[in-house]
């Protein structure tokens, strides 16, 4: 792919809008709303993270991801239910599941398989660009949705947050720099995710979380995302004020996911 990283982000968003339009043509909004209303009650995503932090544990959001635009295929032997179980056995507090098909080889079926396998709260990880996706997320059983400030206007972010909250879901709002953080703090979302990956250069550096965590008010819950590979990274981030972490690729590449998750968390076998 010859596109610059910035162009890739734009292309992902354009392709997502086209895919959402296709799904909207196939599924009536009233039907999606009805499915959202009838879905199992949310499992309390934010509460699980906060309870873990309050008890001195690391609030790990473990990510189920088959592939990514930058890394390509990550795990050929992809079994969402088995991975979800392995993460839970390893000490994960919540799960994140990629549902984008074009760039991450994910699907709604991956999400529902993982949800059926464990009782952990789950984040529907996708590029949320239309309110229709909020209803869709709740309909598939999502407990939380991701709002990426780099991909949204302030008006969109505010509107999507209000709808997600009305559907009893939590929101993880993602930022990478101070300008995005200032915008995110205008929302009510308790969970603020700091993406250590620069979407303009694709460089990943956990020093981004170290720099920005201290700028986030204490009433918010800080989650560091991307580039976290071992227990030393977690200790470093905790010292900076990070309370939760989201980790995917480094765990998804391991043969024994449960063992790798425990090692990441500094927990004995």
TrEMBL record:
NCBIfam families: PRK00278.1-2, PRK00278.1-6, PRK00278.2-4. PANTHER family: INDOLE-3-GLYCEROL-PHOSPHATE SYNTHASE, TRYPTOPHAN BIOSYNTHESIS PROTEIN. Pfam families: IGPS (PF00218). Keywords: Amino-acid biosynthesis, Aromatic amino acid biosynthesis, Decarboxylase, Lyase, Tryptophan biosynthesis. InterPro entries: Aldolase_TIM, Indole-3-glycerol_P_synth, Indole-3-glycerol_P_synth_dom, Indole-3-GlycerolPSynthase_CS, RibuloseP-bd_barrel. It catalyses: 1-(2-carboxyphenylamino)-1-deoxy-D-ribulose 5-phosphate + H(+) = (1S,2R)-1-C-(indol-3-yl)glycerol 3-phosphate + CO2 + H2O. One of its GO terms (molecular function) is indole-3-glycerol-phosphate synthase activity. Residues 9-264 form the Indole-3-glycerol phosphate synthase domain. Its EC number is 4.1.1.48. This is Indole-3-glycerol phosphate synthase. Belongs to the TrpC family. Gene3D superfamilies: Aldolase class I.
């Amino acid at each position: 792919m010859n596109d610059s990283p910035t162009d890739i982000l734009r292309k992902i968003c354009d392709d997502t809008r086209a895919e959402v339009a296709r799904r909207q043509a196939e599924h009536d909004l009233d039907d999606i709303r009805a499915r959202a209303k009838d879905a199992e009650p949310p499992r309390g995503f934010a509460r699980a993270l906060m309870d873990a932090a309050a008890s001195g544990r690391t609030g790990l959001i473990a990510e189920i991801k088959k592939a990514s635009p930058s890394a390509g295929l990550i795990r050929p032997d992809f079994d969402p239910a088995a991975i979800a179980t392995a993460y839970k056995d390893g000490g994960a507090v919540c799960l994140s599941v990629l549902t984008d098909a074009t760039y991450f080889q994910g699907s709604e079926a991956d999400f529902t398989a993982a949800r059926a396998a464990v009782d952990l709260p789950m984040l529907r990880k996708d590029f949320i660009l239309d309110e229709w996706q909020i209803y869709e997320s709740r309909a598939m059983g999502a407990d939380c949705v991701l709002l990426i400030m780099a991909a949204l206007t302030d008006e969109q972010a505010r509107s999507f947050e209000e709808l997600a909250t009305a559907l009893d879901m939590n929101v993880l709002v993602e930022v990478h720099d101070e300008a995005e953080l200032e915008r995110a703090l205008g929302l009510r979302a308790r969970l603020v995710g700091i993406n250590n990956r620069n979407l303009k250069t694709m460089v990943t550096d956990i020093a981004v979380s170290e720099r920005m965590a201290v700028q986030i008010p204490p009433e918010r819950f800080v989650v560091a995302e991307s580039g976290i590979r071992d227990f030393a990274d977690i200790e470093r981030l905790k010292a900076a004020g990070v309370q939760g972490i989201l980790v995917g690729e480094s765990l998804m590449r391991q043969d024994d996911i449960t063992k790798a998750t425990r090692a990441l968390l500094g927990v004995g076998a």
